Amino acid sequence: MVKAEDNKGTAEGNGNGVIVVKNLTKRFGNNIVLDNITLSIEKGKTTVVIGPSGCGKTVLIKNFIVLLRPNSGEIYFKDKRIDNLPDRELNKVRTHYGFLFQGGALFDSFNVAENIMFPITQHSRITDWRQAEDIVNAKLAMVGLDGFQNYYPAKLSGGQRKRVALARAIALNPEVILYDEPTTGLDPIRADIINELILKLQRELGVTTVVVTHDMTSAYKIADRIIMLHNGKIIADGDAEHIRNHPHPQVQQFINGQASEDDLAVLRASSDIAKAQFLPRDFEE
Amino acid sequence: MLETLGAKTIEDLADMGRFGRFAWRSIVASGWSIARVTTYPLIWAQMNIIGVHSVPVVMITGAFVGMILAVMAYDQLAGMGLEEHLGVLINVSVVKELGPVLTAVMLAGRVGGALTAELGTMNVTEQIDAVRSMGTDPVRYLAVPRLLACLLLTPILIIYADLLGVLGGYFIGVIQFGINNQAYWKFSAYGVDLWDVAVGVIKGFFFGTAIAIISCYKGFTCKEGAEGVGQACTEAFVASFISILALDFGLAVIFKAIYNTFWPLKSLVG
Q: How far apart, in Å, are the Cα atoms of B16 and each of A151, A223, B51, B218, B239?
C-alpha cells in the first residue's frame, strides 16, 4: 500500500511546481507505459525518478519537455499548458529546458565546441563569434573539460561524452535540467564525478533538476525528493529517508537490489531446461 | 486473418498520412528557409555532399547509357540503311527518358541511401530528439537543407548525364562504327528539340524532391538498432524507385498533353 504522504507533490497540493503533470497517460499500442500520473516538480530542487528498466521513467521526462505527447492528461511548465502547443511555440518553451540524453546524443559530425555552440547559434542573438566562443569555453570549464574544444565525440570516453552533453544542455542557461540515466555505463568514480557535477550545477545555477536513474547510490546522493515508478504508476514519493523505510515490497526490492521470488523461479526453471538440452549424449559422435 | 489484414491496412493508411504530413511540413519549411540567409550554409554543405560528390557516378551512368543505346540500335538501323539517324534515337532517349530516370535511380541509391542511413542513425542515437529538445525544428534543420540540395541539384546532375550520354553515343556511333560525323549531328539537331531537353530537366525537380522527402522520412521514422537502419535504407530505395517510375509516367502524360495543346500540329508536320 502507498502511504498517505506519498504523492505529496501533486498538482493541486504544490503551488511551487515548475513542471506540473495532471492525469498523464501514455500508451504505445496496447501497452500502457504511464498510467494516470499526477505530480509536481518543485522549483530549485532535485527530484530523482527511480524504477526498474522499462517502467516508463524516460517516457515520463520526455513528456515533461513534450518530446513525446501524452495520450491523455495535461502538462504545465510555469503554469502554462504545453502539451497541446504547436511545435513552433513548443520550441520556444524547450529553450528553458536542458536535456541530457542517456548516450549523450552528441552530433557525431560536430566537434565538442560546435556541439555546445549549436543551441547558442540557433537561439541567442549573439553575433560576435568570440563572445559565443567565450560561452562555449565557460560551459566546458564548468564541466571540467576546458581544452577539449576540438575533439570529436568518437574520441571521448563515455563519461567525457556525458559531460560535453551536459555542457551543451546548459548552454542556454536553462531553468530546468532533465537527466536521463546520467551515470549508466560509467564506472563508480566517473559516476560520482557526474553526481558531483549535477549537485554543482544545481547549487551554482539554481536550476530545477529532474534525474531519471536506477543507480541508488546516485539517487541518495543528489535527491531532495525521490519518486518511484512501477508498472506506470507512482508507488513511492518522498525524501531519501522516506524511501529507505518505505513498506512497499517493490520499493524495498528495488533499493536493495533483490530479485523477486517469481523472477528467481523463472531462472531456476530455465536452468533446468538448459540442463535438459545439454545432456552428454548430445555431444557424442 | 481479417483482423490482421484490417490492422495492417489501418497502419499503412496511418503511415501514408504521416508521410503526407511530413512532406507538407518539409515543403512549407523549405519555402521559409529559402528566404533566410542563415540556412544557406547548411544548404551549401548538403549541395557539396549530395551534388558535387555525385557528379562522377552520374557522368559514368550517362556515358554508359549512350554507349549501350548505340551498340543496341546500330545493327537495326544499319539493316535499313538508316544508321545516320542513330544520333536522333540515342539523344532523344537520353535527354527525355533514360538520362533523367537512370540519374534519379542512381541518386536514390547513392544519395537517398546515405540520407536515410545518416538520419536513421541520428534517430536511433537520439540526436534528432536532441535537436528537438534544444528548441530547433529537426525538419527545418535536417530535412530542409537536404531537400533543397536534392531539388536544385538533381536537374543539374541530369544535364551532366545527358551530356555524357550524348558523347557516349557519339563515341560508339561515329568513332567506333564510322557513321558520318556531319550527318550524325545534323539528324540529331533535327530530331531533338529544346522541349525534349527541358522535359528531362524539369523531371529532375520532381525526382529530386521525391528522393529527398522519402529518404528523410524513412530516416526520421527508422526503427531502433542496426537492423532498423538497414531496413529503412532498403524501404527508402524501393519507395524512391517506384516513385521515380510513377512520377516519370505521370509527367510523361502531362508533358504530352501540354505539348499537344500548345503545338498541336508540330508532331504531324515535323
A: 41, 45, 29, 12, 12
